[in-house]
Amino acid sequence: MGLVINHNLMAMTAARNFTRSYETLYRSTNRLSSGLRINSSADDAAGLAVSEIMRTEIAALNQGVRNAYDAQSLLQTADGALQVIDEKLIRMKELAEQAATGTYNSTQRQIMNNEFATMRSEITRIAEATRFNGVALLNGTISQYSGSANGLKIHFGPTNSAARDYYYINIGSATATALGINTLDISTQSGAQTALATIDDAVVSKDNIRADIGAYINRLSNTISQLSIQAENLQAAESRIRDVDVATEMTMFVNNQIKSQAAIAMLAQANTIPQLALTLIGG
């Protein structure tokens, strides 16, 4: 290569090498400061597409976990109300047992029956009043809130294409009418004796409702565990695609930093080369 003054080819080469090293240095700085290997589609178009799909599914799964927790709260609200109803039924059983014996007169039984009727009315009131976020739980109308006869739809999966993404919960009615105690009267000894067996049946009906609720709560706990594990594994996979390996990227950063510094130094030297021509011209 001859000594020329119209073009400084060595400086051009040094500048090109500096630009390449600087661009790589900039990319490493961007990755290290953001913690992400992929900051734009230009970094890895295919990886970006896959990671975005994963991030969408992860967000849906995390919301599904929250949905399942909300469903558990709903069921626990119903179970708490049924526990109070259980206390009322126990008191009604106690009053019926008391009125069934022959040592009380009709006036005393009427007093017992007044409390008995109050307990029965309170059971219906509790069943009608127990709600979660506006959803009536114990009056037998829970299905109407989902538009399905199967019950209240609990959705937790990322799609709506299969039964694995949701299931239904249904809670039986716990009103006095549904429990079969709405017509009981213990103002007479015979009525009190009849009420004993009927209340036992009501307790069984109430216990069946609570057993269903307990089964739903346990199933939701398993669902939450499975969804959490699935989201965790997807997050790990998304991290391997999108997150930067700090050790590897730092090695590249130092390498490109040295190259950039060397290119700058050589560019400075190359810019002095044309001065040699002046030395020759000046003799």
Walkthrough of the structure:
This protein is mainly alpha-helical and 283 residues long. The chain folds into two domains: 64 residues; 179 residues, f41 fragment of flagellin, N-terminal domain. Helices cover 70% and strands 4% of the residues. The protein is built from seven helices and four strands; from the N terminus they run αααββββαααα. The strands form two sheets. A two-stranded antiparallel sheet has the order 1-2. A hairpin with a 2-residue loop joins strand 1 and strand 2. The two termini are 21 Å apart.
Please name the defining characteristics of this protein.
4 strands; 2 domains; two-stranded antiparallel sheet; two-stranded antiparallel ribbon; f41 fragment of flagellin, N-terminal domain; mainly alpha
